[in-house]
Amino acid sequence: MQDFDVGARLKQMRQAANLSQRQLAEASDVPHGQISMIETNRSSPSVSSLRKILGGLGVTMSEFFEPDAPVTQAVFFKPHELRDLTTRLYSTLEGPRGRITLQQVGDARAHNLQILYERYEPGADTGEQMLEHASHEGGVVVAGEIEVTAGDHCAVLKAGDSYLFDSTLPHRFRNIGDREALVVSACTPPYL
């Protein structure tokens, strides 16, 4: 797999939107210096930080990582046909970290529904900075266990357990177990 230059891609998209680093930081509600640090590859963003920044640009993670992905009208998908939304992000990180892999089924925008196959290695965490976005999401834990926090609610979910909440609630996903956790989730409208 080729290395993906997160900083260069972010700068390219910011400039295409005719935004300064400061304007993007304000639109994303992140510190101005964070945009500069990411664009110069002096810092690798967490998944939650990158989502916030891309929200300020009005683009999804899928559009960020796969700008030339062909639009498909496919109905059925094999595992190798899922869109990998985060593998390239984590290829830029240094040192051992819990890895999160998010794979999307088909064209989420075309259906106004995002279905993800999520893998969380032990210790993986969406980040201390809680996620918040205008949609609704739910999922089923397929294997392992994962701690889900949504607003004031927090639970450790095991295989067969599920969740459903308004995504405007600050939320976080953490694998606090010692084996991989697998989740199948849906979000509408699509967020990534």
From TrEMBL:
The keyword Chaperone does not apply. Residues 10-64 form the HTH cro/C1-type domain. One of its GO terms (molecular function) is DNA binding. SMART domains: HTH_XRE. InterPro entries: Cro/C1-type_HTH, Cupin_2, Lambda_DNA-bd_dom_sf, RmlC-like_jellyroll, RmlC_Cupin_sf, TransReg_Diox_bact_type. Keywords: DNA-binding. It holds the Pfam family Cupin_2. GO terms for cellular component: cytosol. PROSITE patterns: HTH_CROC1. This is Cupin domain-containing protein.
